[in-house]
Amino acid sequence: MREISVEKIREAVEKMCGEIAFVYPKDVLQRLEKGAQREDTPRAQGALQILLKNAEIARDKHIPICQDTGMAVVWLKIGQEVHFVEGSLQEAIQEGVRQAYRNQYLRNSVVDDPLFERKNTSDNTPAVIYTEIVDGDRVEIEVAAKGFGSENMSRIQMCKPAQGRQGVVDFVLETIRLAGPNACPPMVVGVGIGGTFDYAAVLAKKALLRPLDQRHAIEEYARLEEELLERANQLNIGPLGLKGKCSVLAVNIEHFPTHIAGMPVAVNINCHVLRHDKVVL
Amino acid sequence: MRKIQCPITEEVRRTLKMGEQVALSGVIYTARDAAHKRLSEMIRKKEPLPFDLKDAVIYYVGPTQTPPNAVFGSAGPTTSSRMDSYTPELLDLGLGAMIGKGYRSPAVKEAICRNHAVYFVALGGAGAYLGQCVVKAECIAFEDLESEAIRRLEVVDLPVFVGIDCCGQDIYDE
To answer: Which of A104, B27, B42, B124 places its Cα 20 to 30 Å from the Cα of B94?
Structure first.
C-alpha cells in the first residue's frame, strides 16, 4: 500500500489547469504552423498568422489563449495499491480547479443548474471527474479544459452494424461540416466507436487526449483516421470558417467492444485551443 | 485595412461589403447569452435599456477576469447563433452591428437587411490578441452575471471581417 496525500493531487490539478490556459501543446502549434504554410488565400493564411501571433501574446504576456477557459475535465487512473490520505480526493480536485481559475484570473464558465437558474458558481467548479482503478501503485492525473463553442457542435449516433465503415465516415464528416465556423476551426476531432450510448461519448473525449502525431495502434483504424482527416480538409471550411485547406488538425479514434445489435459513434469536436496535460504521481 | 469608427451610422454600414477586413475603433458593448435574455425581458416590460441601441455595436464576448494592473483579459468572440432568437428585436430597435463568430439564422439575416445593419466576424480563439485591442473597460449592467455582464469597451483597431453585409451577403455562403 502506498499512501498519497490528496494535497499532491490538488497541487497537480491547480498547476495543470493554470498552465494549459496560456500555452498550446507543441503538437497543436506545429500543425497550425504547417497549416499556415499550406494555405494559399490571403484570408486563410492571415487568419492562421493571427492565431500564431495570439499564441505568442498568450505565452509571453500571460493572457489566456482564448477567453473560454473551459469546463475542467479531470481523468484519474488510480493504482489499486494507492491509499489517499489527509482529506477528500474529490474535494482536493475541486479545490485545485478553484484555485487555478481564481489565481490565474481565468473565466468562470460553469453554472450550477443547467436548466432553470443558471447561476454562475463563481469558481469554475465542479469539474467533471472520471476515475478508473488500474493495477499498480501510481496515480495518473490528466486535465483538460473543454471550451463549449466546439463542445456544442459534438454529436452522437447509434449506427446500425450494417452501416459499417461507411456509416462512420459519413457521420463524422457530416458532424465536421455542420460544426463549420461555429467550432473555431481548425478543429481536432475525437471519435468514439463502440461501447454503449454513454461510453462512446467518453471514448470520443478520451481520443482528444492522444498526441496528434500518434495514430491508432491498429492499422485499420489508423487508416480510417487518415482518410477522415484528408476528406475533412477537402470540405473547404478553412481556418475560422473563412474557407481554405486547414479545417481539421487531426482525427483521433478510440474504440471499445460493443453489443451485437449496435455500433454507437460519438464525435467530440475541439477547437484549435486543445488544452490538456498529464502528470504521474 | 479600412478603419471604422463605432457606433456605426447607417451611412457607413451601407458601404461595408461582405468579406472586407476592417479595423474597429470607438465604443462597443459586450453582451452574450444571459445579458441578451435580460435585455429581452426589459424590452418586454418597457424598461429603459442600459445603453443606447441606436447604431450601437454589440460584441458577443465573455472575457476572462481582468488581472490587477491590466486593462482587460482575454476576449475573443463567442458563437453568435445562440443570440439569434433575441437579435431581430434588437436590430429593429436600432442596433447597428454585432461582432461574433459563426452562422446566423435566416431571421437574423432578414433583420440585418431590413435595418441596413452589419454582422462582423472576429477570429475565434484569438482572445489574447483581441483583448489587447481594448483600451478601456467599464461594467455598466448586470454585474452579477460576472463574465456575462454588459461592459462598455473602448477599442482601437479591433480586426474583424464583414460577415453579413447590409444586403444579406454572407461570408460563410461564398
So the answer is: B124
